[in-house]
């Protein structure tokens, strides 16, 4: 099987998951990769494994380079099963001298695999392990995105093996950033950040600051998913810096579900109002857009208009589900407005406002409800709501 030498004596030996389309609720239309790396030296080191069902890909790739029994150390940068699922088999095969992990990694490995007899070697930030002519330095990255997560840095190669951080769910035959379409790459990187890391943005900011203060030189970032940043690792570092501040951009979203198209008519009118203010607008119907694609747009939008009719004194289930998903990811620093049609009770708009208030969005309008079907005058009110939201977005970038 094909392996890739990413640095002299360091190989990509992971697996491409061409088939996965759902990653615990996140749509992965392009599949993904589980990256694992083999570094040869006085001690042969394997960084991470792969999802259990793709373990034979990993083993075959390793066998094209060395006999797996010659692996001395396995570094577990992250315990989630997409990287550790094949670890028990790998441990059986290699009988490693050390399984290197963080303190929380140790705890989580025990809770996953119940093997107190494994040869754990616990490391923390600032610790290093010498493997002959090269060193592995460790940086704990707690809650990026699990308590056990850590980076491995090889200073002699200026190589950062970054676990989930800086990854993309992009299953390709290409291994490097300069080999793939740049807009697709950055879209997938943004989608990954939006759906996995948004709520950990304070930790991302802190980590980027401490990495800068440590003055470590990086000329390659090798994440556990997607392509390796060899041409321009600064591009993804800068993108993380921007995304982690939730600054947004001159962009408004109209996110809605509809029963008999009344709320949809309102959504289009709100979008017209936003557009009239020179704001870039995206209309997203939750019946056709996957929640994780909507969340990708939320990451860099400055204003959200949420529309939903009332059903059984509440919201339509797609909107309720989306709000639960978005709330969990904690986007901040947004303007909001709500609208929707109703027949007799009409609670949905109030509920949308409540959720946005809980998320500390700044509501620019009290909300707009329409009985059954909007007429021309009501649609004009929707346009006005869009204008108010658009003006708030635009003004926030002109201050
Ligand atoms: Fe790719 Fe958090 O595992």
Report on this model:
The protein is of the alpha/beta class and 399 residues long. It folds into 2 domains: 4-244, Metallo-beta-lactamase, Chain A (4-Layer Sandwich), CATH 3.60.15; 253-393, Flavodoxin domain (Rossmann fold, 3-Layer(aba) Sandwich). The protein has helices spanning 55-63, 81-84, 87-94, 103-113, 182-197, 201-214, 233-244, 262-276, 291-299, 317-329, 348-358, 376-398, and strands at 4-7, 10-12, 15-17, 22-23, 26-27, 32-34, 37-39, 45-47, 73-75, 98-102, 120-123, 128-131, 134-140, 150-154, 159-161, 220-222, 249-256, 280-285, 301-307, 310-311, 314-315, 335-342, 362-363, 368-371. A 7-stranded mixed sheet has the order 1-2-7-8-9-10-11. Strands 17, 18, 19, 22, 23 and 24 form a 6-stranded parallel sheet that branches. The protein has a 5-stranded mixed sheet with strand order 12-13-14-15-16, with no helix packed on it. Helix 5 crosses helix 7 (233-244), helix 5 crosses helix 9 (291-299) and helix 8 runs parallel beside helix 12. The radius of gyration is 24 Å and the shape is elongated. MU-OXO-diiron binds next to helix 2.
What fraction strand? 15-25%
| CATH first level of the largest domain | Alpha Beta
Q: Would you tell me which CATH topology of the largest domain applies? A: Metallo-beta-lactamase, Chain A
Q: What's the mean pLDDT score? A: 97
Instruction: Please name the CATH architecture of the largest domain.
Output: 4-Layer Sandwich
């Amino acid at each position: 099987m094909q392996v890739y030498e990413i640095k002299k004596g360091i190989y990509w030996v992971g697996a491409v998951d061409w088939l996965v389309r759902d990653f615990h609720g996140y749509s992965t239309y392009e599949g993904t990769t589980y990256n694992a790396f083999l570094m040869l030296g006085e001690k042969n080191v394997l960084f991470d494994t792969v999802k259990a069902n793709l373990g034979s890909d990993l083993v075959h790739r390793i066998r094209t380079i060395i006999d797996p029994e010659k692996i001395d150390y396995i570094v577990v940068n992250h315990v989630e099963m997409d990287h550790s699922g094949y670890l028990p088999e790998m441990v059986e095969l290699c009988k490693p001298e050390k399984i290197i992990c963080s303190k929380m990694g140790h705890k989580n490995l025990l809770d996953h695999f119940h093997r107190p007899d494994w040869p754990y070697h616990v490391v923390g930030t600032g610790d290093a392990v010498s493997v002959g002519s090269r060193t592995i330095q460790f940086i704990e990255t707690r809650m990026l995105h699990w308590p056990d997560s850590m980076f491995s840095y090889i200073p002699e190669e200026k190589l950062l093996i970054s676990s989930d951080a800086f990854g993309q769910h992009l299953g390709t035959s290409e291994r490097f950033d300069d080999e793939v379409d740049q807009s697709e790459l950055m879209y997938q990187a943004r989608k990954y950040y939006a759906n996995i890391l948004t709520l950990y943005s304070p930790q991302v900011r802190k980590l980027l600051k401490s990495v800068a203060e440590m003055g470590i030189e990086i000329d390659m970032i090798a994440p556990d998913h997607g392509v390796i940043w060899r041409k321009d690792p600064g591009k993804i570092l800068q993108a993380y810096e921007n995304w982690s501040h939730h600054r947004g951009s001159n962009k408004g979203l109209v996110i809605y579900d509809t029963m008999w198209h009344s709320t949809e008519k309102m959504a289009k009118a709100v979008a017209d109002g936003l557009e009239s203010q020179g704001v870039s607008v995206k209309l997203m119907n939750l019946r056709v857009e996957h929640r994780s694609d909507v969340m990708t747009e939320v990451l860099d939008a400055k204003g959200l208009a949420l529309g939903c009719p009332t059903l059984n004194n509440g919201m339509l289930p797609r909107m309720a589900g989306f709000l639960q998903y978005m709330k969990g990811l904690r986007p901040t620093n947004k303007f909001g407005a709500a609208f929707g049609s109703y027949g007799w009770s009409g609670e949905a708009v109030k509920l949308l406002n409540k959720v946005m208030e809980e998320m500390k969005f700044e509501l620019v309008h009290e909300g707009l409800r329409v009985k059954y079907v909007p007429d021309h005058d009501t649609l004009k009110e929707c346009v006005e709501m869009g204008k108010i939201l658009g003006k708030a977005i635009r003004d926030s970038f002109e201050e």
